[in-house]
Each structure stands twice: as structure tokens, then as C-alpha cells.
Fold these 3 entries.
Entry 1:
Amino acid sequence: MSEELSTRIQLAARPVGWPSHDDFRVETVALEDLKPGEVRVRNAFVSVDPYMRGRMNDVRSYVAPYALGETIAGGAIGHVTASASDDVPVGAIVQHQHGWSDTVQADASTFRVVPDVPGLPLSLRLHILGMTGLTAYVGLTAIAGMKPGDTVFISGAAGAVGTAAGQIARLLGAGRVIGSAGSAEKVALLTEKYGYDAAFNYKDGDVRDQLAAAAPDGIDVFFDNVGGDHLEAALEAFNDGGRAALCGAIVGYNTTDRVAGPDNMANIITRGLTLQGFTLAAYLHLSPEFQEKMTAWFAAGEIAYDETIVDGIENTIDAFLDMMRGANTGKMLVRI
């Protein structure tokens, strides 16, 4: 038996409504000796993401729900501290989906070695240069078919996906980029740092009215992370032939009641709109294309980012709960 310990966070109960600490369990265990082909990784950063809330429910979805008593799976990056694999040596930097733990041990095939680029923080591979950025790119290009000159509206624009989507839309030639956020500070950040042409605080009034004021000539593309009243507002603002990439619906993640549907669904017919939901697994073949573009943009200094970092694996639950309440700007991460 190894002397090294691993602290991990497991799902103890399925949340009803808003999750609480009672829905999780923190466990510290001694790691077994390495088996042939296994590696041990000390995580540097662990990701907390909105989609994780959906996996805590035992319902049909695009991916299996988390099992009770198992560690919360998700993105993480760290360094290999011990190896019984010829393919993944000690010292390598690896990404993986083993999730909420400070140290993880598993077969080498479940880790992906990534290069150590001087000056590039490891954390960026969990958001703007990783799945978060790829999600934004896929939604705008493969799903919504954004064209130069389009007016683009992004809901939840100050989050990790939203800040990426706004910048990518601008770099791909959008004529106007509009975002919604949940505070005056975040609204200012969107226009002053992330290149949004206009932004509004959805808490200040009716979203439909605020979007109409921000986009008097209508919108062509909607990248939705929120759902609910934001989707309804977009349906009202769409020009003929508008396209929506439906990425998330955070407005309903923690409610115990059914979220009311938009009252203007007929606009889909009369304006010839296209609304398509998506998850990233079906579009991973676009990763090389995205990496080429994003690496060039980043190297040219055209990409900004924000991180909200919480220190310590024991504070991962708090980081997750804060993220669900919108306390983060940009990507929420736990630093080990």
C-alpha cells in the first residue's frame, strides 16, 4: 500500500433544487501501489462547470448521471508523480476527466499528455484553450453558421463559455456582439475587456425590452447558455433566417418546477428560424481546427480571459455552489 493519500469529493445524495454541502462527501484514502500501466497524478487545477449540476440528477441526458458514492468526474490537469507506463513518464503534464480529487491514480490510457509551453498557465487548457473555448467555437460555427457581419447575442456572456464566445464572434467578423450578464461590474467587463459592442444586466428589467434596445436592427445569431426569458427575448429579436446554438439552460438547473416555455414560438415558423441544441462530444473532430485558430489568436494577443480561482480541494464544493449562483467571472477553477 502506498503512503500517498488522495482526497476526493463524491456525490452523497441527489440534490433537490439547489445543491448543498449535504449532497456531497469528502473522503481521504490511501492509494494502492501502482499496477502495470497505471500512473499517479497530482492535480494542479480542477474544473467546476454548470453541466455538472445536470449529471447529479438521475434522468435521461446526453451522458450518464453521476453514481452515488463515486467521485465527481470532470476536467482536471496536473503532473505525473509516479508511473508504471512507458507512454506517460514522471513529470509529464496531463489532462483528464477524473475530476474532483487532489491526487488521482488510474490507467495511463485515461490521461492525455499536453506540452509544457513556457508562459502558458496550465489552467488555460481547462477553459479558453480547451473545452470551453471549443464549445464556443463549435456553437458559433458548426451549429449557428455565423457569417461576417452577423449581429450575435450571447446569454450568460460573463461566464467561461460566454467570454470565449464573444471574442470568437468578433474575431470571426461579427458585425455587432451583444451580451447579457448579472451585474453592472460584469456588464462593464464585457464592453471594456472582451470587445462586446453592447451589454446589459438581465436583473435590471425585462430581457426582451433590454435586448430590443441593444439590438434595434435585430439579431442573426443567438448563443444561449441560459434559456428561459433569454430564449424568449431572442425569438422576439431574430431577423428572418436567424440561427440559435443552444448550449445551456442554466435558468432551470436548480428549479423544482417546470420552466415556462417562450410565448412566441410561432416566430420560429414565420421568420424561418433554426434552433439547434448541441453537446461537444459529437464535434471533437473540430478540435484541431479550433486549436490552430485559437493558438494564433492567443499568440497575437487578441484573446483576454478571466479566472475565478478557489484554493484547496476541500473548497471545491463551495466553488461549485458559488459558480452556480454566478459568483465567478470567466472560468471557475480550484487550484490544488
Note: The radius of gyration is 21 Å.
Entry 2:
Amino acid sequence: MALFAGIMLAWSPVSVAETKIKVGVYHFPPVASVGPDGKPTGLLGDLLEELEQTHGDISFRVVHTSPKRRFLDFDAKLYDVMIFECPDWDWRDKEVSISRPLLVDEDFYVALRKPGRDLSFFDDLPSHTIAVISGYHYRFAGYETDHSVLEQKFRIEFSDNHSRNLKLIKADRPSVAEVAIVSHSYLQMHLAGHPEDRDTLLISDKPDQRYQLAIIARKDGTPSADEILTLLSPLIKNGRYQRLVEKWGLRLPAGFPTGDEAP
């Protein structure tokens, strides 16, 4: 923890024994979400709890933001770190530090399975009404998030969660949503709880996008992305991080270090 000695002196106005880190969190299940009590859930919730138990001199303050608002809140310095975020989602032009990837996931197209409907249904996506989550980045849309721009190019239904979008698909309301875009990890979690939907839903065999999730922190700020990664190192070395990732149906990047190779 020598790396954090200077941080603790600079950050803690009450006690030099504790470093408080402000973490931005938005609804991104099963990676991260915020419960009714304001506490983080999903993989991130488990990870922050493990980190506080591992490092008694570190605590995390969760700042609830939204997919659309997360950049404004970062610029306003309401939080300093976002864990499990894709750098390609409009972060690279900002003054940030970025860690090595910690997770990988991908998004798939989902429609209602009907007689005569096969995977070619997804070949002409703009011809269908599409349910998306407001503020999320999608490859089919050129990673555009502005509502007005998207509505000019596509027939779009904006939502704030995957569960609602899947319900719209199952309700067979083509004027509202014929295709939803859902992450692989969420789909696996949904199908584990609703196995009957394996015969109800048609899922594309090619992803809309594949992405790598990393730690993003304020450039020249305290802590940096790599300093957060250093905090994570003991959990990587003892295998605890990998078990948490697998618990939530998520995946590590290829070649991710384990054991003595951990950062």
C-alpha cells in the first residue's frame, strides 16, 4: 500500500487512516446497478465490498448517475472513478487514465420467434422498430446517443432497462419494438430465470458489438486507473476476482493475468 500513502494524506481531512474513493455507477446489469437503498449491486457491488474488506484503509462512496448523465457528472467532478466501462464509449477524448481491460461482453439482437422468421430477420435492422436503452452506445447506430439524431435515422423506442425491452418483444407489439439489443451476460441471466424464453426469443448469431470494460479515472487525479487496479491485485492473485466474475455470468479478457502474473 506504499503507492497509496500520498493519496491518504491528501484526501482524508478527518483521518489519515482512510482513503475515500468516489465511484460513478449507472444501471448496467449484471455488471453494475444501484439498489433502492442506494447501494451498488451486481459484480461491482460484490467487488467494492471485497475491496473494502481487503483494504481496511479504503472506502468507496457510490455516486448514482445514468448512462446519459455519466459524462456530465464526471466533468462536474461528482465522481472520480468508473469501474467496468468501455473506453470507446466517448471516453478517449476526455482527460482520463485507463487501465487494462477487466471484463469482456457483447450485445446481441433479440426478436420474437415466429413461424418463417429466421436469423435473416436481423439483416436489415433499420427496417424494424428497435428498443434501446437511453444513453447506451450501439455499433448499429455508429455509437450515437443523441435521441434526436437516432430518431431521424431509425424507428427507436427508448427505455431504461433490458427487462422492459424483452417484455416489449414478448408482447408482440411491432409498432413499438420488433428488435431489442441485449448484452450476452444479461441474456444468460434472464434465460436462467426464464428457461421458457429459449423457445420464445430469436437471438442473433452475430453481435452488434463486442466490448472490453476497464477502469476509467480522472487523468492526473488520485487515484489513477492503475492505482485502482493495484487495489484489485490481491483479489486477482487469490482467484477471488475470477470467481466473482463467473458468479455473474461474465467473462475475463483473453490472457487476463492470474496468480503471480496479477498486476
Note: Residues 1-16 have pLDDT under 50 and may be disordered.
Entry 3:
Amino acid sequence: MSLPIYQHPSLTVLIDDSDSFLKSLSFQLDPALASKSFHDTRSAIDWLGQQDGEGQYSDALHASYDTYPNAHEQCNVAFDIDQIHRISFHRQRFATPSVLVVDYSMPQMNGVQVCEALRHLPCKKILFTGVADEKVAVDAFNRGLIDRYIKKSDEAALDKLEAEIVALQREFFVARSDSLRDMLALHNYAFVSDPAFAAVVRALLREHGIVEHYVYSNPPGILMYDHEGNAQLLVVETEASMDSHFEVACDNDAPDSLLTALRERCIVAWFRGGDGLYAKSFASSWHKHVQPARLCRGSQNFYWALFPLAPGELTEPAASFADFLRTRELA
């Protein structure tokens, strides 16, 4: 299963002509599935169009192309990898619409018509139907207008809805990662396309209560935040990069204990404040800059370790998802 190169909590948009049903549904949904409700279809379509337009917050990632003097087919691609983790510095990232839950039977437009009007948006779409609407839902699914449909009459319909929202939010970010994942994997980020390493990351997300993550550039790895915005960096090394650490340490007359640990792959080192490699100034404190190495055997050997980040270590503070939810409650 693919690993999104970034993922953060996002917005679920609920569209139903019954205001009382919307209030009940919003109350019953897991608060972590932050939602915005509309009982008027035109208002919903207009609002979603504004989120997709120029001047609104967008976490889209952009590559640049240097075609001169070559033809387009021979152009070089340049991508600033730091764009990825800088998404976490935007508070409004949590207001990115990722999943629409649309009722079918509505007076202005039915749910299929709403989804057709919004088919150009990257949002995933769930049609919430009555029993009599199932054939309509199947047809809409086959036409690619919706991604799921759930019958309101189903037993445990709310549980199914929550599970599908979570799954589709992940698919939303996987789709946004597809165009860049292969390019990153060709360089120092092979771990983003490795199924074995993706399984390691998913386990870490669950274990540490991580709600958002971003591929990080220096050192290569994944920046992670929990619900309260506490940050950790998952540093990922390969055999080649471990060799580089050892060679630089040798050239800088590192202590024998550090050289042995690097040679035997016992540690992952991150010497902060420069290029991440050892320098003579770390001679007496090198043990403060390493963590025990864990090994993932995938398409190649990946050595990894988690490094906690203190407040202020990143270039900008990241607003937490907890703060975002608290602000919404007060609004």
C-alpha cells in the first residue's frame, strides 16, 4: 500500500437539505473528522468552488521545468522538497476539503447532480442514500461520479460512514502524492515507494498518535506531528548513506566508539546545525545526536530512528490540529 508523501487532518463537507439531520450527524461524527455542513446545495457548490480557486489556501505542490536548450521531452525537473513539510506551517491546511458526504434526495439538486457539478474537484465523494436510491447510486459509482455510497437504513450506518471517510481521506492524499512519489524515489527517498517501509510508518503513526506527516529533506525522512503539535523526525538511512556517515566521521577523527557504532549499523546519527554529518565539534557530545538504529528490510535495507524535536527547531511553528479544533468550537 502506497505511503502519501504528506497527509494531515482535513475537512469533511456534509450536504443535506435537512438542517436537523446535519446537526445530528455533525454531533455524532468523531470530532477528529472535522466537518462543515450545508443544507443548501448552491451554497455548498459555491463555497467549494472558492476553496479551489485562486487566492484561497492551497497545499498543491509544484515542480519547475528547465527546457532550455532542450526540447520539452528532454527537460530537467526541479522540485523543492522543503515545499512538502512547509505545508505544516499553514494553519488553514486543516480546512482543506477532502471528502464530501452528499444526500441523494434534495429539492434543489439531487446528490448525483451535486457530485456531477463537483466532479472536477479532487475531493472524494460519498452518496448517502435511502434504500430506494441504490440503483441510482450504483450507476453514479460506475460513472465515476462518486467513490462510495452508503444506505442510511444500513445497520451501523454511522460506523460505516466514519470508516469510509477515514479511508477516502487517505486516498485523497495518496492521489495528490502520485505525481511526485516516483520522482522522489529515484533520488534519496526510495522509502516513499517501498511497501515494507510504508508498513513501518503506519505502525509508528498508530503507536505515537501521529495525525500528520510530511516527507522531509535534510536529513531524508518524515516529519511527524501528534494531535497537540508535538513534532518528531523519522530519519531514514540506506546502506550508502550509512557509509557516508562513517567516511565523514573517519575523515574528522571521530572517537572510536562512534566509528564502531556507525560501522556496525547500531545507530542512526543526526548531527544538527549543518548538513547532518559528523564534525569535530561533536567529539565530546556525539552520543546526544544519535538514536538506536532499527532495520526495515524492503527493496533495500532502511535504517531508521525517531528524533524528538524541541519547540523552535523548525524554521516556523506549526499550528496543531488540537488548536484548530478548539478554535472551531469557539467560533
Note: DSSP finds ten helices and 15 strands in the chain.
